[in-house]
Amino acid sequence: MIQTRRLRALATLLASLVTAASPASAEPQGTPAPAGCTGTPSGTWMHVVASGLRNGNGLLAVTLYADVPSKFLAHHGAMYVGRVSAVAGTTSACIFVPQPGVYAIALYHDENANQKFDRNGIGLPAEGYGFTNNPPTLVGLPSFRSVRLSIPRSGLTTRVTMKYP
User: Fold this and answer.
1) What is the pTM of this model?
2) Three-state SS at 130
3) Where are the alpha helices (DSSP H) in the chain?
4) At a CB cut-off of 8 Å and minimum separation 6, what does 5 contact?
5) What Å distances lie between residue 17 and 106, 143, 153, 156, CA to CA?
6) pLDDT tens string 130-142
7) Residue 152 carries which DSSP code?
8) What is the DSSP string of 95-113?
C-alpha cells in the first residue's frame, strides 16, 4: 500500500513533463553544435544519450530545468522540452542550454508520440523515464540535489538509463 502510494506520487510528478546519467564527459573545446541540436541556439550545448529504450516507437522527450529546486518537475517549471525520434536501445539528442551552469534533465519515452507522459488506470507510469545521474526511483521521485548536473562548457555528454514500469 505504501509502495503503491509512492509509485503514484512518482507518476503524478512525472506527468508534469507534458509540455540514471553519469557525470558529463568533455569533448574538444570549441566544437560547434551538431546539426539537429534542439532548443534556442546558444554558445552552450550538450549531448544526452538515453540507453535502455525498449522500442523505437514515438519520441524521446528531453526536459531541461534551471537550478531552481521548486521548479523541478513542477507544472510549467521546465525551461525547455526537446523531442527526438526514439530509437530502440539507445537514443541520442543534442540540446542547447542558455549558458554554462547547473541544470537538471528529465527524460520520458513518449511511445505513442502524444507529447504527454502517460499513466495507467491507477496513476502509475505507463512510459519509460529517466533523470541525470540515474538516481534511484523505487520509492518515489529523486531529490533535486541528486539530479543536478554541472555544464561548464559545450560538447559534454550525459548518459541516462531509462526505467520502465
Assistant:
1) 0.80
2) strand
3) 2-14, 144-147
4) none
5) 8, 16, 26, 23
6) 999 999 988 788 9
7) -
8) EEESSSEEEEEEEEEETT-
